[in-house]
Amino acid sequence: MDDVFVPWTEIKHPDFPGKKVETGGIKPFAMINPPPDKLGDLIEKNYRFIVTTAGMRPELEFLDVKVENQGESVFRLSLKVHNAGVFATCAQVGERNLFTRLMRISIETAGKQQLLSGDKVQRMSRLEGDKSSEFSWLIIGKGTVKITAGAVNTGIISTSAELR
């Protein structure tokens, strides 16, 4: 590498009047930064890596949303939450720590609807890429229900189902 050293030169510094002060030495970052003629290739390779890796992120979607009329205004709502991404929804070590936001799924009923079975809010297990978790509720009452699933690190998805 050329041009990385600045010769030591005596200067007059206002903080050290009457004392000998010199500046010089290796230029800051000169031994760390790549040469300018290499930057274009390095940026291109790193850009492609970052974009490809980001494209593998967890991507939640609802699959097989099904409403079955059980009679007397009772409906079974079932669905799958699917991770269409390549990466899991959290690192495996994230299942054991307190900092990773666990995914959850929640259902909101409307009007006089009531849940007969299934929890209104549930924690969701870690989902590997291209894997699903199944959920089901029994609800009494006609109308629309809203389902929301996800976490801060996976994104939040929502859908609704009409019970009629």
Account of the 3D structure:
The chain has 164 residues and is mostly beta strands. It has 2 domains: 5-54, no CATH class; 60-163, Sandwich (Immunoglobulin-like), CATH 2.60.40.10. Helices cover 12% and strands 47% of the residues. The chain contains 1 helix and 10 strands. It has one helix at residues 36-54, and strands at 5-11, 21-26, 60-71, 74-83, 103-108, 114-117, 121-124, 131-140, 143-151, 155-163. The protein has a 4-stranded antiparallel sheet with strand order 3-4-8-6, with no helix packed on it. A 4-stranded antiparallel sheet has the order 7-5-9-10, with no helix packed on it. The protein has a two-stranded antiparallel sheet with strand order 1-2. It starts with a strand and ends with a strand.
Could you write a compact summary of the structure shown?
With 164 residues, the protein is mainly beta. The chain has 1 helix and 10 strands.
Defining key terms:
2 domains, Immunoglobulin-like, 4-stranded antiparallel sheet, 1 helix, mainly beta, single chain, 164 residues
Q: What is the CATH topology assignment of the largest domain?
A: Immunoglobulin-like
Identify the overall geometry.
Answer: elongated
State the share of residues found in helices, binned by percent.
10-25%
Biggest sheet, spatial arrangement of strands: 3-4-8-6
Fold blueprint:
Elements: E1 5-11, E2 21-26, H1 36-54, E3 60-71, E4 74-83, E5 103-108, E6 114-117, E7 121-124, E8 131-140, E9 143-151, E10 155-163
